[in-house]
Amino acid sequence: MLIPVLEIKPRNANGNTAKNHVIKRMTPTEEEIKERNRIFNEKYKQVFDLLNIALEKYTTENCQCAFPRFQQLIGIDCCNYGESFKCWETEILISSSKNTSKLSKVT
Description:
By secondary structure, the protein is mainly alpha-helical. Helices cover 49% and strands 6% of the residues. The chain contains 3 helices and 2 strands. Strands 1-2 form a two-stranded antiparallel sheet. Helix 1 (30-61) packs across helix 3. The chain is elongated and about 65 Å long. The mean pLDDT is 75.
């Protein structure tokens, strides 16, 4: 069973975090980390294959950028978010669309 990393902060009767609280941290085992990575890789491949099928369809019907969902995912910009995260769908679409698009230099 996978154990998530948790921070347990005891709360007082008012629901506020106690001033002198103890944080208990449960960390996953090496086996659990390997299992999570295996599951992530499996799901990543499924999403990769699905998005590539969608890109093929987009390319045969029109330009990929003519589809709103493609525009939405490809246009995600996290510069001003203030935290780190990665949008795998955006990364897949950008890398895969390069392979299916006919690129030409604009002069």
